[in-house]
TrEMBL record:
InterPro entries: Cyt_c-like_dom (IPR009056), Cyt_c-like_dom_sf (IPR036909), Urate_ox_N (IPR010389)
One Pfam family per UniProt: Urate_ox_N
Name of the protein in its database record: Cytochrome c domain-containing protein
UniProt entry keywords in alphabetical sequence: Heme, Iron, Membrane, Metal-binding, Transmembrane, Transmembrane helix
Organism: Marinobacter nanhaiticus D15-8W
Residue stretches spanning the membrane: 12-33, 84-105, 117-137, 149-171, 177-196, 255-274, 286-304
Keyword presence, Transport: no
Cytochrome c domain location: 312-404
């Protein structure tokens, strides 16, 4: 019953988190788009202090948007702020971290072959990383480095890389990845809460008093702009991490941390092309380099185990022949506690990933995924709780090859 209810809880929290995240990143993309499409307004608008305007049509109506150089002469009665999208994404994300990783399936987080942690210590370490990285970021951005875009970007990348590597040494790959997502997401929400919001409040206060925004407001606004640029570069990597739990190929790789760093770098770099283009600078070479790096990554990660398994089959003598009974036993020992119509493992009510391996026919049916999960990436059995040996994996690989 507990597992059943936790499944519902996880669905509801995850759903909410995705909706909040879509609203946040969607609004942020929309405002970037607006900024980049403002045109020179007509004279009468300029006199009102409008620096750019645009027209759009959507949902059956015309919209006229105007951006003021400083602010309207008088505070409008209703002013829309965009902050709850960010806050609710963070809150639901943290809830999801607890529901899925800290309470629900510590198996996604704890890998006894890396560190024998209790769920409680694992959660403490995870939260410590998130809080620690936020603190480091805040110290750095408030210092002189904060004003030097390139240098800050490089230092931030190195810091994230170190955290990524360290988390990977302690946690299971999937848990390490999601913690990198939580770190980046928390930094992004911190940027809204600790920098962008205070700057907007100062601007609103100045307009309310009917004053020209002073030097202090200007400084806050400058820093808010830097923070918002950082968030902009982080959107693509964080979305990759949000969906990465579907890709054990990456997170369960021995060098999963380096793969994450490479994908993070490539996506943030590709974002750079769009940011430059918005400023009128066309540098397609950036996209070309990003594409080449992606192709290199695809090449580097290409599995070789499949071929090994093939060669092994060819050279396997009769004494090494794998029988159906061997496979039946192997699957029953290592997979069926979870992958059954009614799993005996209390953490599951239904076969995980919808894959029940009750018969050899079903093993054949899922042969490609099993090859990937149990032979190539070896992320199955989850956390290798059943202690599946390399020889058994080889056997399974050989048998799967023979079925083709
Ligand atoms: C302790 C429980 C457990 C055991 C034991 C286990 N699995 Fe899984 N398996 C899971 C869970 C949970 C998922 C879903 C993982 C996810 O969504 O990332 C899964 C997913 C899979 C998938 C789908 C992967 C994908 O990304 O599409 C395959 C294939 C698979 N398991 C094969 C196996 C095989 C083969 C064995 C035995 C050698 C095995 N599993 C043992 C829990 C288990």
């Amino acid at each position: 019953m507990a597992a059943y209810l936790s499944e519902w809880l996880s669905l509801i929290v995850r759903w909410f988190h995705v909706i909040a995240g879509v609203a946040w990143i969607g609004a942020s993309f929309y405002f970037i788009w607006l900024d980049n499409h403002l045109r020179e307004p007509p004279e009468w608008k300029k006199e009102k202090g409008i620096k750019g305007d645009l027209w759009a049509i959507h949902g059956g109506g015309f919209y006229e948007v105007a951006k003021y150089r400083l602010g309207p002469e008088e505070m409008p009665p209703v002013l829309h702020w965009f902050k709850w999208e960010a806050y609710s994404t963070l809150l639901s994300g943290l809830a999801l971290l607890f529901v899925v990783y800290y309470i629900g399936s510590p198996g996604y987080l704890i890998d006894a072959s890396k560190a024998e942690l209790t769920p409680f210590t694992a959660a403490l370490i995870g939260l410590g990383f998130i809080g620690g990285m936020l603190a480091l970021y805040e110290i750095l951005i408030r210092g002189p480095l904060g004003r030097n875009g390139m240098a800050f970007g490089a230092v931030l990348f190195v810091l994230l890389l170190v955290a990524d590597w360290a988390l990977f040494q302690i946690f299971a790959g999937r848990g390490a990845y999601i913690h990198m997502g939580a770190i980046i997401g928390t930094i992004m929400v911190g940027n809204v809460f600790l920098g962008i919001m205070p700057s907007q409040r100062a601007l609103v206060a100045a307009v309310e008093k009917g004053e020209e925004p002073g030097e202090n407001v200007g400084r806050l606004a400058e820093l808010a702009k830097i923070r918002s640029t950082h968030n902009n570069y982080l959107t693509l990597p964080i979305i990759f991490i949000m969906i990465s739990n579907h890709y054990p190929l990456f997170y369960s790789h021995t060098y999963g941390w380096a793969i994450l760093a490479a994908i993070g770098f490539i996506t943030a770099f590709a974002r750079h092309f769009f940011n430059l283009r918005h400023r009128g600078v066309h540098r397609p070479s950036i996209l070309l380099v990003a594409a080449i790096l992606t192709v290199i990554l695809i090449g580097v990660l290409a599995p070789s185990t499949g071929q090994h398994a093939g060669t092994a089959t060819a050279t396997a003598g009769a004494e090494n022949a794998v029988t159906d009974v061997d496979i039946q036993n192997l699957v029953s020992t290592h997979c069926q506690t979870c992958h059954a119509e009614s799993p005996s493992n209390p953490a599951f009510n239904a076969p995980p990933a919808g894959i029940a391996l009750g018969s050899l026919a079903s093993v054949k049916q899922h042969s490609a995924q099993i090859m990937q999960a149990a032979v190539t990436t070896q992320y199955m059995p989850l956390g290798n709780t059943t202690g599946m040996t390399p020889e058994e994996r080889q056997k399974l690989g050989n048998w799967l090859q023979e079925q083709k």
